[in-house]
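Protocol step 4 of 6: structure prediction from sequence.
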Amino acid sequence: MSVYLVVLLAALLHASWNAIVKGGPDKLLSTVLLTSCAGLLATVLLPWLPQPAVESWPFLAASVLLHVVYFALVARAYHLADMSQTYPIMRGTAPLLVALASLCWLDDPLGLGALAGIVLICLGILAMALARQPGKRSANQRQGLLLALLNAVVIAAYTLVDGVGVRHAGAAAAYTLWLFLLTGVLLLAWALLARRVVFVAYARIYWRMGALSALGTVASYCLVLWAMTQAPVAVVAALRETAILFGMLIAGLFLKEHLSPARILGACVIVAGAVVLRLA
């Protein structure tokens, strides 16, 4: 299979697990199921891999906390607003924020291509923000939009932290599996302490959903990691942004969300901007 088809598959898997969470009756408990199952899978795989260096653990700890916030915000955003609105904003805005952070704190200059990508992403977000969903409360849409933007900040933060952490780890796969495991432990502990009876009942009914979404999460990362050993990292990262388009299609076809022209246009512009920014 072509490496680029593998990246497209990874993008599809990423969009799919988001759709599974969105389609769950309780979005937060669905994320807890996902992370718990991903943690269980990581537990099985970790003994067979070289372990991360000690120097990477402070970054790993910070990333775990950021991922807990990330999953909580994903659940809340999907509770309030459509996936076709929030998913493109979360995924597309993060590269913009990473680029701006690199400019401000790492002194990485931005070329014309990067600036063009930033402008396109901003225009796409504006189109998403102005889009109105028939039959939906505008207050919920606004809150969902704000949460999606806030989560983009979290995604950018853990991207930067993991970028440093993986370099210190010397073992990218194990670093990420520990991330899955520890995030799952924290969210599972919260669920058992705060909503034990409800969560246990929910898990008995929807454990297959949790297992499927966890498999998609772990497989998506592993496929991208492999692809980056076979093709230029910038190209792989850019192609992965097609997850936004997959997310839109899944939201329309399976979640039955109304895809207005403004949302479709906004998502396409965000994808274009993210791709330009990744390749700049």
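Step 5 (inspection) to follow. Residues 191 and 199 are 6 Å apart (CA to CA).
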